[in-house]
Amino acid sequence: MINRVGLLSEPDSPTLLAKNILLILDDSALKEKLSLLSKEEYKKRYDSKTVAHSYISLCHNLLSRHSRHA
Amino acid sequence: MKIAFFSDFTAPPQNGVWTSIVNLSSTLCRLGHEVIIFTPNPSRRKSIKLVDERIVIKFLPSVPGLLYPDLRLSFPVSPRLIQKIKALNIDIIHVHSPLAVGLGGIFIGKMLKIPIIGTQHNYAMEEDFLEIIDIHYMTKQVSSFLWKYTSFLLNQCDHVIAPMAMIKKDLVRHNIRPPITVLPNTIQEDAIQYVDEQTVSALHKRLGLSDRVVLFVGRLSKEKSIDILLTGFSHVLKKRDDVSLLIIGDGPQRESHRKLAKKLGILKNVTFAGELDQENLLTNGYYQLADMFVSASMTEVQPVSFIEAFFFGLPIIGTTALK
């Protein structure tokens, strides 16, 4: 998930983590770019109403499948 | 539709599974459905604060868990609970955890012939996760047992939800037979409020933060690898000292993290703000004051705090996950 929108740090690497933090702190254009990517990522995947409608349709399908088998 | 959620995870203390359950419940209620959450009675019940008061919570009697602090244990099922579910005329049972409450949900669903959905929220059965939480003995066997147990439970469900495609792939690999749908976690957008610059700057001042702010929101527990975050942040401070690390959350590792920050000589630049309820977190400018969101955790599936950071347009630094 993260490597699509932010900078990737290797596990157990505090040095790389620090390097990435400094990159964003030192480069306002990079910060702006990553900020836009975050907002786009949100709109693309996590809109709560879209997710809830998918959930409801899943429930309806399940209920009709279940009543057919009952 | 009337949906009963069964979760062994409850709050306080705040945790990702609970927050994601409450967030989905809130949107479903907003769309005209009824959600009833069955969960263990938490130790600090009085401090529970939900952003959405339409969500009904039924607390089950519980005792403190032995292996993991703050995880409460309930009895899986009781005649009274079965009667209650029957009287409520529930359409769907949705199980969010594999412990006693989840098990009870599956049992009741089977007994009353109510369709069951199961969500796999985490990777607690992986060897790497067990190592991180200090289970170093027979980890391979423990992991294999936990996967078999998880598979058994999920195979009792009529449908399975995986928050990410990666989990779906792993569930298929472990012979989960019901249909699996990838459905991400969400946040409560309607509960979010942007505040003006003056309010953000007052909060900034009140928390005693430096000009630039690195934010982490999550439980202060071993699996979040906050020790790596603190160590990494100490390297940042060697290059520039105008940065604060703001840590929002609470948990069993609070004191050891504070001690580590002191040992690293960075306590002046690290603010432990403690646990905040969702309403406070999302309406008072905490995300707005940050320059970025950082997590060193290697055990995440799809943390709600990351989604909140996406919403507020924060750059995110994370680690490669377990795999």
What is the fold's blueprint, element by element?
The complex is a heterodimer of chains A (70) and B (323).
Chain A (H helix, E strand, L loop, with lengths): L1 H4 L1 E3 L4 H13 L1 H18 L2 H22 L1
Chain B lengths: L1 E5 L9 H15 L3 E7 L15 E5 L1 E3 L7 E3 L4 H10 L3 E4 L4 H13 L3 E4 L7 H6 L6 H16 L4 E4 L2 H9 L6 E3 L14 H10 L5 E6 L8 H14 L3 E6 L5 H10 L6 E5 L3 H6 L8 E3 L9 H8 L4 E4 L4
Parallel strand pairs in B: 1-2, 1-6, 2-3, 6-7, 7-8, 8-9, 10-11, 10-13, 11-12, 13-14
Antiparallel strand pairs in B: 4-5
Strand content of chain A: under 5%
- Tell me the series of helices and strands of chain B, N- to C-terminal: EHEEEEHEHEHHEHEHEHEHEHEHE
Provide the gyration radius of chain B in Å.
20 Å
The number of helical runs of chain B is 11
Q: Give the CA-CA distance, first to last residue of chain A.
A: 40 Å
Class inferred from helices and paired strands of chain A: mainly alpha
Taking Cα atoms only, what radius of gyration of chain A do you get, to the nearest Å? 20 Å
By secondary-structure content and strand pairing, the structural class of chain B works out as alpha/beta
Report helical residue fraction of chain B. 25-40%
Q: How many strands, which pairing sense, and closed or not: the largest β-sheet of chain A? A: none
Identify the quaternary structure here: heterodimer
| CATH class category of the largest domain in chain B | Alpha Beta
Poorly predicted sequence stretches spanning 5 or more consecutive residues of chain A: 1-5
Name the overall outline of chain A. elongated
The appropriate CATH architecture of the largest domain in chain B is 3-Layer(aba) Sandwich
Order of helices and strands of chain A: HEHHH
The number of helices of chain A is: 4
Task: Give the spatial strand order of the biggest sheet of chain B.
Answer: 3-2-1-6-7-8-9
Task: Describe the structure concisely.
By secondary structure, chain A is mainly alpha-helical. Chain A has helices at 2-5, 14-26, 28-45, 48-69; one strand at residues 7-9. Chain A is elongated, with a radius of gyration of 20 Å.
